[in-house]
Amino acid sequence: MGTTFTLKAVLLSLAIVSVGSAMDIIETFDGTGPFFDLDGKIEGFDNRNWQFSTTEPTSQKLDGTFPLEAADTDASGEYESIMLEGTKWNGSFIQRVEVHDLHVKADHFNGAATVSFSHLFDEDRVGRDAISIDVSDPGGLTTWIDRASVVHSELSIGDNVAFELVFYDQLSLVELRYDDDIFDSTSPSELRIEEMSPAREVRRIGLFASAFNSARATARIDNFSLRSLKPGDLNYDFAFDNRDVEILSREIRSGENDRRYDLNDDRILDVEDAKVWIHDIFGSYFGDSNLDGEFNSSDLVSVFEYAEYEDSVLGNSTWVTGDWNLDGEFGSSDLVLAFQDGGYERGPRDGTTVPEPATPLIVLLATGVLFARRSPCRS
Ligand SMILES: [Ca+2]
Ligand SMILES: [Ca+2]
Ligand SMILES: [Ca+2]
Ligand SMILES: [Ca+2]
Predict the structure, then answer these.
(1) Minimum-distance ligand to the CA of 267?
(2) What is the pLDDT of residue 155?
(3) In the CATH scheme, what architecture does the domain 22-228 have?
(4) What is the pLDDT of residue 350?
(5) Which ligand neighbours the alpha carbon of 319 most closely?
(6) Which pairs with CB-CB distance under 8 Å and at least 24 residues apart come from 143-146?
(7) CA of 358 to the centre of ligand 3 (A)
(8) pLDDT tens profile 243-276
(9) Ligand nearest to the CA of 291
(10) Where in the chain is the domain with CATH 2.60.120.200?
């Protein structure tokens, strides 16, 4: 990827971030940060304003994770929490936390053990304007959006998991996600999505473990983050690549017009949204199959090597294999779109390369290359 493109991406992301007043918060719990918790007992947080609370004073040391433990042998109840207090935030966000060695176990028939991950939009209105995910015994995995709960009994709770709370500010939409194994290659899956118009006050966010009546809840908290949600980062991984385009393609073809993917805000999902992604967000042209910031012969060579041009397999093509209008096929309409877009051999989109216009000759050459390689060549 050229430096010009990288610079543009940085400027664009800065421009988008500056719309809100929020600074991303990332906490590793590695113990090497400059801050104490609010009571001045735990040293080494990456961020100020962590508040540790507990019914059973224990010594906690940051050395990679924050160990939360609540164990109750009678009916008095125990809890521990680690909360980021007084967080000022505006705009869309994704809040994520990784949890290692998550265990909730109630031994008594009326016992309860819970680990909860939450975001309160107004720190003074406990329970209202809150989104959270709870893991409990009994009960399993429960999501809460402004006090309306859903039990996800179909899901197994893993030992090493991630919770994600996503908020689309302009859409007033909450999406809750869960990854039952952070060490495998699968992404978090969507648990639930709801509309919600919360108060936009000072936030209280964090994790809570509680146990009641012969019960025990433990979790090691790792890699907490609260970050601005960037338009076009459709899988929330803070990268812009073909995985985002594949999600856009899937959504366009689904016909559901999901507003989360409606990048030009016209309530319809179509190739115009792909145009916003490739032109304005990624900063390149239709035809840039390898997403290196320009459309040139290497993109054409690459897509013809995949040999999906007008093949007989339905819906098998992706941006990388030549489906630039995101209808699932690589056909002549993709070539027409790419050459009409005018980026062929022009270098990076905002580069200073002298334009080499996409003449009919180039189109003919390109399609010539294409047809020459059209016979099945995939081994
Ligand atoms: Ca992404
Ligand atoms: Ca649209
Ligand atoms: Ca390219
Ligand atoms: Ca296509």
Answers:
(1) 2
(2) 87
(3) Sandwich (2.60)
(4) 81
(5) 4
(6) 143/176, 143/191, 143/192, 144/118, 145/174, 145/176, 145/192, 145/194, 145/196, 146/196, 146/198
(7) 15
(8) 999 999 999 999 999 999 999 999 999 999 999 9
(9) 3
(10) 22-228
